[in-house]
Specification:
about 500 residues, mainly beta, 8 domains, 7 helices, about 5% helix, about 30% strand
Length: about 500
């Protein structure tokens, strides 16, 4: 199929006629075509070819003229395609490539065609203000560009990797927030707001915290010594009975909100075993989180149901923050961590890094795509390790165990005193200083540390109340499906009845 030869730059035009043909055309012999002489790419599209000298020109590239202009949002001057394939370094992304660049003749500014489409202003999930595409080079014309020195050591606050300030980046001058170009436009990080809908930039809504509102009603209150009021009796949206404030010290009781050990002051129900920390009572009904774009709503949970946390990847049956439009959920502990974490295990601040490839946690060696990274060293911490309780009780052990980040001795032999198996010396562990007793984190916490056991429930499939308990060593058979109960069991002590969690919920 022949076509009319379009205008071609004299410096690259062939001396033979060009034939317009589809890429997949069969000429009866095996012919290896070279890339387009302009963009230096191989595409599945119509191409002008000269088979005598293997000259190839995409139809889209052939339609370009020397007067074609690209109006880039981030540059004050139009960009013109340079109609000759060459090797160059993009003045925006800093990467070297071979192809057809776009050029600003006034500034000698060279960019990739794909980089010319970057928006001038963008909004990302991780930051509440608008980010402006900026550049420290004098060739990059903007009304206001930050003064970055080449000696500046800056880090992208999305991937926590170094940013080369000699090239383009997204920047918030109000907070000194810096992000790589590709990190900011990644679909997981970008907020889908059409900035062209707003006449003025100050009309664009910011990602501030949502309006304060309460999840409880105060029934009785008292005046504290400092003049503030405190609720002595409340009605919380998570429970059918009123809750009373108490300072009594309890042993082995778990908060129904965060699924952590109860410490005073807390609220409790006098009719049933329901407990809430004062801080869990005051959790906001809606909040934003750096891992998710839409706001999250607080969802009280019944302990007979569970969910998987999208941050720490653990099973939980306490309160959760849930997205109203998708399945995204966070447990209470993960929802409380901001994108910048200060942890006593490390001397430097840690920044949340959310990228496409897996990163290894320095404390457990497991990989995750969302970890807190240090900008000064290679230390990384995942959500599961970041939310481990500092102190914890274990069964009937007399003393509490403390989370340890370093080796307790240099003997070269590291064992767990619970399972009596070897420990990895690089991993965190729990330690009882009074008994010189080290233990694996998994041995202390169990398989489901964010799960509250001991609740009493009723189901249609059984006439008596049953108690949710963790698995036992003998794995009793489920009286509904006859398969062994290996994880969670609902037990009826009255008639020695056992059933799986899934069978109970389905029944």
């Amino acid at each position: 199929m022949c076509g009319t030869t379009p205008w071609v730059a004299p410096s690259i035009a062939p001396i033979h006629p060009l034939i317009l043909s589809p890429y997949q055309i069969d000429y009866g012999k095996d012919i290896q075509f070279s890339n387009c002489v302009l963009c230096n790419e191989s595409r599945n599209q119509y191409t002008y070819r000269c088979f005598r000298c293997d000259f190839n020109l995409h139809s889209a590239c052939a339609s370009l003229s020397p007067t074609a202009m690209e109006e880039a949002e981030f540059h004050d001057h139009p960009l013109t395609p340079f109609l000759k394939s060459c090797t160059f370094t993009c003045d925006l992304c800093g990467k070297e490539g071979k192809g057809t660049p776009y050029l600003c003749h006034l500034c000698s500014f060279w960019v990739h065609g794909r980089c010319a489409t970057f928006p001038r202003i963008i909004k990302v999930v991780r930051h509440k203000h608008l980010l402006h595409l900026t550049h420290s080079s004098p060739k990059f014309h903007t009304h206001s560009s930050p003064e970055f020195h080449q000696s500046d050591s800056r880090f992208c606050q999305i991937c926590v990797q170094k940013v080369d300030t000699r090239y383009g980046l997204y920047y918030c001058s109000r907070c000194d927030f810096v992000a790589h170009l590709n990190c900011a436009i990644d679909r997981r990080n970008k907020v889908n707001i059409n900035l062209h809908e707003f006449k003025y930039l100050d009309e664009v809504p910011e990602l501030d915290e949502l309006a304060d509102s309460a999840t409880y009603e105060v029934k009785k209150s008292n005046m504290k010594e400092d003049g503030t009021q405190i609720g002595e009796e409340i009605k919380h949206i998570s429970h059918e009975h009123d809750l009373k404030l108490t300072n009594e010290v309890l042993n082995n009781q778990i908060c129904d909100g965060c699924v952590r050990a109860i410490l005073p002051p807390y609220y409790s129900c006098v009719k049933c075993q329901f407990f809430l920390h004062e801080s869990c009572v005051k959790l906001p009904p809606k909040k934003r989180h750096p891992l998710h774009q839409p706001p999250l709503i607080l969802l009280p949970m019944k302990p007979s149901k569970y969910f998987w946390c999208d941050a720490c990847s653990q099973k939980c049956n306490g309160f959760s923050y849930k997205c109203e439009t998708c399945w995204f959920r966070l447990d209470v502990q993960c929802s409380l961590i901001s994108d910048i974490l200060t942890h006593e295990c490390h001397e430097h601040p840690l920044i949340l890094s959310y990228i496409t490839h897996k990163q290894k946690c320095s404390c457990c060696s497991k990989e995750s795509d969302q970890v807190f990274r240090c900008t000064s060293c290679e230390f990384a911490l995942d959500y599961k390790c970041a939310t481990l309780p500092h102190t914890i009780r274990y069964n009937q052990h007399e003393h509490p165990f403390t989370l340890c980040y370093r080796l307790e001795d240099d003997s070269g032999e590291y064992y767990c005193d619970i399972c009596e198996e070897e420990r990895d010396s690089k991993h965190w562990f729990y330690y009882c200083e009074d008994c010189s007793c080290p233990a694996h984190i998994e041995c202390i916490l169990g398989e489901c540390p964010n799960y509250k056991f001991g609740g009493v429930y009723t189901f249609d499939c059984h006439p008596h109340p049953v108690t949710l308990v963790e698995k036992t060593k003998d794995h009793p058979p489920c009286h509904i499906c006859n398969k062994p109960c290996k994880i969670f069991i609902y037990q009826c002590v009255q008639c020695n009845f056992n059933m799986h969690e899934s069978c109970a919920l389905e029944g």
